[in-house]
Design a protein that fits this description.
- It is built from twelve helices and 23 strands.
- The chain has 559 residues and is of the alpha+beta class.
- It has three domains: 258 residues, Rossmann fold (3-Layer(aba) Sandwich); 53 residues, no CATH class; 169 residues, Jelly Rolls, CATH 2.60.120.
- Strand 18 and strand 19 form a beta hairpin.
- Helix 2 packs across helix 3.
- The radius of gyration is 24 Å and the shape is globular.
Length: 559
């Protein structure tokens, strides 16, 4: 294939339907004729080196590349507001691109995080020119995927990201007092405590339940409106780890066309910054854990935009890095068809408090065991130590870390299996079914899956949270009857991990994971306006009547 020199056309104004003009930088092959286009829409400036370098490589390969500042950011006009304007703005931009003299009428979209969400948001409008997508590390449901996972505010992300992006240009957050900002009450004023009023943050606090505000930007009920294929990319330790599979299944099973149902997904042992280092957190997964994602993305564009038969759609649609054995594997569906769904039950004699306690995890069904009790005081929440976090690891770490310091707390219930006599692979979605009670009108329940090595090192794999007031519906808050036992299903994200011989599987149960999530103040008062804290007395049950367990997707070992 020829390698083209590159022409640049900077600050080209693209009109939107309401008259607002958005700024786009064009990187075009220096040649006559028309070319397929790769479109990237960003709030992070279309003048960033990494984006420009990618655009120039694509232009060298014979693609027109358009990098556009979204509405209200950098060189684009209008007022900035996350997510909602990107539905129509994305469609209008696609229609404009397809009509340019250098365009051959085929558009692929690329980019990660916000650059991925603009792809999903505009796709259901079905521009005649949109041909394929390549979204990385993003969700389709921004209520559950980003702002309120399990009904709890994802405080660290919305605060740090919000502070960085609020305004026309990028904002420094290096000098904020994050310790106090995260702890500010009421949470609806947390932005002011960090020195900046965030209009969209206020709106999010005003919409703590799923409603029309969130439905307007929820792609998960619009899969059947999307007629183009998507090559998604994700990481086991990304905050959108589970969403990557939701998106993969959503479009492959419900896409409008056969082409849409040829979508693909690759997932590695990475945080939000995909495949930039073999080390995530304090675990090095080896050089083989890195993947040439740009190269795979180019193969995707070559097939759909240039018609090059490179075989990419004939390959298995799912590529997973399996931790523990640190190997890549191709699969055809999610969850894997050969999954052996096993219930591993919580056990104790009422003494599962901390890793020094007697909490056990096994496939044996519980008998009449006493419940485990602990005190959750929101003044002293369980600290976040790694996990599925974003996007400031210098403020709140991401990835796998030793959890033993967390597990020493008396308000963390710890349930550990016997060491395995042979390898056991757990690959799939993780769910904890918890029977629990509290003495107040509301509280949170958290769960974490941990791989414990023979040395005692406790490596977190994935975690989740559930806000009790949304146990019946995420659209309606309903307070608890104190001391009544309720059943909760906690989505603990996803993993692909082999618990090696001599290792144990562990589940942690508590009521806080802070500052990844905001603290439930246990009062049941209107969300975001309450500064009063209440100590909660918690009880977790595991008995014949209340068989609390984790549902593990066990993959049979290859013969």
């Amino acid at each position: 294939m020829p390698s083209y020199e590159v022409d640049m056309r900077l600050n080209v104004k693209v009109p939107m339907r309401d008259g607002v003009e958005l700024s786009a930088d064009l990187y075009l092959p220096r040649a006559s004729g028309t070319f397929p286009t790769v479109l990237m829409r960003t709030p992070y400036s279309n003048n960033m080196d990494v984006t420009i370098e990618r655009a120039r490589v694509l232009a060298n390969d014979g693609y027109a590349c358009v990098i556009q500042d979204i509405r209200g950011r950098w060189d684009s006009d209008g007022d900035y507001y996350p997510f909602h304007p990107d539905v129509d703005d994305g469609f209008d931009t696609q229609e404009w691109v397809g009509q340019q003299e250098w365009s051959n009428g085929k558009i692929g979209m690329a980019g990660s995080s916000y650059l991925g969400l603009v792809q999903w948001l505009s796709a259901p409008l079905r521009s005649q020119y949109l041909t394929c997508l390549a979204p990385r590390v993003i969700c389709g449901d921004f209520y559950n995927g980003l702002v309120y996972p399990g009904g709890a505010l994802q405080l660290n992300v919305v605060m740090t990201w919000g502070m960085r992006t609020n305004g026309r240009t990028g904002q420094s957050i290096d000098y904020h007092d994050w310790t106090n900002a995260f702890r500010a009450l009421p949470v609806g004023d947390a932005d002011l405590s960090a020195g900046r009023a965030l209009g969209f943050f206020k709106d999010w606090i005003e919409h703590p339940a799923y409603d029309d505000y969130w439905n307007a930007i929820d792609v998960e009920d619009k899969w059947n409106e999307i007629d183009v294929p998507a090559f998604s990319m994700g990481g086991w330790f990304d905050l959108y780890s589970a969403d990557a599979f939701t998106n993969f299944n959503g479009i492959r099973k419900n896409g409008r066309t056969p082409e849409a149902r040829q979508s693909r997904l690759i997932v590695g042992p990475w945080p939000h910054a995909l495949s930039t280092s073999s080390k995530t957190g304090d675990v090095d997964f080896g050089a083989g854990s890195l993947a040439d994602l740009d190269g795979e993305e180019t193969r995707w564009f070559d097939y759909w935009l240039k018609g090059i038969d490179n075989g990419i759609v004939d390959e298995p649609p799912l590529r997973l890095f399996i931790m523990g054995i640190n190997e890549w594997r191709d699969e055809h569906e999610w969850p894997l068809a050969r999954t052996d769904w096993q219930r591993w039950h919580l056990h104790s004699d009422g003494d599962a408090n901390s890793v020094r306690g007697g909490g056990r995890l096994s496939i044996d069904t519980p008998t009449d065991e006493p419940e485990d009790r602990f005190v959750y005081d929101p003044e002293f929440p369980v600290q976040t130590v790694g996990g599925n976090n974003c996007c400031s690891p210098d403020i709140v770490p991401w990835g796998p870390y030793d959890q033993r310091a967390v597990e020493m707390r008396s308000d963390v219930l710890v349930y550990t299996s016997d060491p395995f006599e042979e390898d056991m692979e757990v690959t799939g979605p993780i769910k904890v079914v918890l029977y629990a009670a509290t003495d107040g009108p509301d509280t949170d329940w958290t769960a974490k899956l941990v791989d414990v090595s023979p040395t005692g090192y406790a490596m977190n794999l994935c975690d989740g949270i559930f806000r009790a007031r949304y146990r019946e519906s995420r659209s309606e808050s309903r307070l608890l009857e104190p001391n009544r036992v309720y059943e909760y299903e906690i989505d603990v994200a996803v993993t692909g991990n082999v618990f090696q011989k001599g290792h144990s599987v562990r589940i942690e149960i508590s009521s806080s994971n802070f500052p990844r999530f905001d603290r439930n103040l246990n009062t049941g008062k209107d969300y975001g306006k309450d500064g009063e804290m209440r100590v909660a007395n918690q009880a977790v049950y595991h008995s014949r009547e209340y068989p609390s367990h984790v549902l593990l997707p066990v993959i049979p070992l290859a013969p």
